[in-house]
Design a protein that fits this description.
The longest helix has 30 residues. By secondary structure, the chain is α/β, with parallel strands linked by helices. A hairpin with a 2-residue loop joins strand 6 and strand 7. The model has no long low-confidence stretch (mean pLDDT 78). The chain is elongated and about 65 Å long. It has a five-stranded mixed sheet with strand order 3-2-1-4-5.
Amino acid sequence: SNPGTPVGVDLRVKHLVAAAPVDGSVASAFTIEGDHIRSRHEILMEAMTALDSAIFDTSHAERELFAAMWQQFRGQLFDAAVRVIRYVQRFNRPILVLEDLSTCRQSLWEQRSTADVGMWLLPTLQQALAVKADQAGIPVRCVDPQYTSQECHVCGDLGHLENETLEC
């Protein structure tokens, strides 16, 4: 019997999502660019820096700003998760394969001024993917993230990653 088709999903900020079946070709890959999220995050960081340097209490303004920006992020993350699950459903008995990003334990609010958007945004997107996969009846498997961006999807050897291109 067919055990299913593992579909790996890599989450990053520049390419928000890159997904492909484990034994598939690069041509069959699905990507979602992260430019808009990255630019919104830069705006958030600039505004938070400005508020941090104010000589008066800005905690209310910080909460309001973060809440407004989070609404924009949340919609994009939800849309990305839905699009990924639609892509994954094209395969025979798909299994969603995600990197284990459980190292991020702080809340979104605690991470709000972290310059690395990936520290809080990507685990949030991963959670949305897991929820959507569960709703669609797609099993989810988490793997150790070490070397996943360097491992060749064809031969399994570690390659050299340069300019976001893996050379096997």
